[in-house]
Amino acid sequence: MSPNSAPNRRSFLARSAAIAAVPAVATLAGGALAEPASADTLPDYAPIPPSALGPAVNAQGYFAGRVEKNLYWVTDGAYQAAFLTTRDGVVLFDAPPSIGHNLQRAIDQIAAENGVSNKVTHLVYSHHHADHIGGSSLFGTDVVRIGQVQAKQLLASENDPARPVPDVTFETKHTLNVGGERVNLAWHGTNHTPDNSYIHFPDHDTLMLVDIFLPRWVPFDSFNLNEDVPGSIAAPDTAMAYPWKHFIGGHMGRLGTRADMVLYQQYVNDIIDGVKKALGTVDPTPFFAKYGNNVWAAAQQYLAAVVAYASGPVIKKYLGVLAAADVYTASTTFAILESIRLDLGFGSQVHP
Ligand SMILES: [Zn+2]
Question: Contacts from 230-236 at CB under 8 Å and sequence distance 24+?
Fold first, then answer.
């Protein structure tokens, strides 16, 4: 085993654990995954552009680095958290379970290097999702947890001991003052989830907004599984209205810039343009002629044709620019297509 293979394997295993439930469900459904996968027969995708990759993780499987002054970030290559060291202790932002105990290791490392306290006193939740805050309970009962009021409601109903409900909540705005540092938390409406919050560090030129824009990567499956597609399309405009130089998106191995966000907005706009063009171009008639009373078969094949028409040029344009454009652009196009049809009423026709 080379010195580098251990951390790589460890972070790979951490990522695998996060998605471990997926094959079990697919197997139950009796799909193609009932056969064990073989690496030899899995499909190939385009290489990841070097611009999408961040610093290498260490032997424990994490990288911790400075964002600006006493604001730091930590990643395992797939997930990100951030922390602010203060004279009164550490404020942690999110606790992804895939980083898990490496969160405290990263804080210990940075605190030792800078001669400051390593004690986490506050934990801010970006949103209620378990993949971003499922490591919360590792920090015990002696921390102040802060989240948007709907995060508290959602977490109370989800009743997951790994994710204690926040002690302090806010509806639209909250300024957190700890150890001479300030952080502005804000809620600007539903986007990825109903509770997703903007975390602005006015003295560190940084904005943290999770699961909206993943610098230099296309969104995860089906447009990041965003609950509110129009709200998620609009969120980058709201983010750009804040002053910041550094962006923490909650995913993958690097931070973002304003130019990265503009590039991402262009990608989404290209998908929207493609969908509108496809809805006006792809003729549904042959699909309904072929499938007759099997309306779902006709719909499935017609919408697949619309997605292929809309996403094809976008995939071609962004290959080598945004990582995994060939992996997830089609599923994101489907999510945006459905929102354009259902939320915006585009292409909707009333029977004469
Ligand atoms: Zn999420």
Answer: 230/339, 230/343, 230/344, 231/189, 231/190, 231/191, 232/191, 232/192, 233/268, 233/272, 233/336, 233/339, 234/191, 235/188, 235/191, 235/192, 235/196, 235/209, 236/212, 236/261, 236/264, 236/265, 236/268
- Distance CA(333)–CA(289), nearest Å, equals 25
Cα 82 to ligand 1 centre (Å): 16
* Cα of 232 from ligand 1 centre, angstroms: 12
- Would the CA dihedral through 35, 41, 43, 44 be positive or negative? positive
CA dihedral angle for residue 307, residue 212, residue 256, residue 123, rounded to 10 degrees: -160
Give 211 Cα–ligand 1 centroid separation in angstroms: 5
pLDDT in tens, the chain (352 residues): 343 444 444 444 444 444 443 444 444 444 555 678 888 899 999 999 999 999 999 999 999 999 999 999 999 999 999 999 999 999 999 999 999 999 999 999 999 999 999 999 999 999 999 999 999 999 999 999 999 999 999 999 999 999 999 999 999 999 999 999 999 999 999 999 999 999 999 999 999 999 999 999 999 999 999 999 999 999 999 999 999 999 999 999 999 999 999 999 999 999 999 999 999 999 999 999 999 999 999 999 999 999 999 999 999 999 999 999 999 999 999 999 999 999 999 988 899 9
Could you tell me the distance, in angstroms and rounded to a whole number, from the CA of residue 193 to the centre of ligand 1? 7
Written as one letter, the residue type at 62 is Y
The C-alpha atoms of residue 73 and residue 123 are separated, in whole angstroms, by 14
For the entire predicted model, the pTM comes to 0.89
Contacts with 67 (C-beta within 8 Å, 6 or more apart), sequence order: 73, 82, 204, 206, 246, 248, 255
What residues pack around ion ligand 1 (CB closer than 5 A)? 129, 211
Which residue has tokens 């680095």?
A: 65
